[in-house]
Structure formats: C-alpha cells, structure tokens
C-alpha cells in the first residue's frame, strides 16, 4: 500500500505478496516535482507523476554473462 492519503504519516505496511514473476517491464510514476527542474527532458510532458513513487529500479546482468571485477 503506498503511503498516501490516510497512510501518509503512518508506519509502513508490508507490501502485498504476489505469485510467480512480477511484471516489472515499465517504470513507475515519478515523484511530484517542479516542472522547471525537468526543462531539458524531452519526455517531461508525457511523464506520470504521483505521490505513490517509492520504487527502486534494480538492474542486474543476465545469468552467465561474463563480468569484469571492479578494483
């Protein structure tokens, strides 16, 4: 449950569980912000903003992909 509305200043709730693979093929809404801070972004007019914006994008390599060590 997103921390909006009556949940805004409450303790966090555990997220709903799902079965199988979660569909994460699209980005979530952006946090509400001043539009002039996005002035150079060509997609600013198509962006979806919401208070429900507490998401984390995690990118990982394909299994078996050769990885170089970082020193």
Please describe what this structure looks like.
- The protein is low in regular secondary structure and 71 residues long.
- It has a domain at 1-13 and 25-56.
- 0% of the residues lie in helices and 0% in strands.
- The chain has no helices and no strands.
- The chain is extended.
- The mean pLDDT is 78.
What's the pLDDT, averaged over the residues? 78
Helix and strand content put the structural class at: little secondary structure
Q: How many β-strands, per DSSP?
A: 0
Largest sheet: number of strands, sense, barrel closure: none
- What proportion strand? under 5%
What Rg is obtained from the alpha carbons, in whole angstroms?
A: 17 Å
Helix content: under 10%
Overall form: extended
Distance between termini? 40 Å
Quickly count the helices.
0
Low-confidence stretches: none
GO molecular function, one term: carboxylic ester hydrolase activity
Organism: Necator americanus (Human hookworm)
Protein name: Carboxylesterase type B domain-containing protein
Family: Belongs to the type-B carboxylesterase/lipase family.
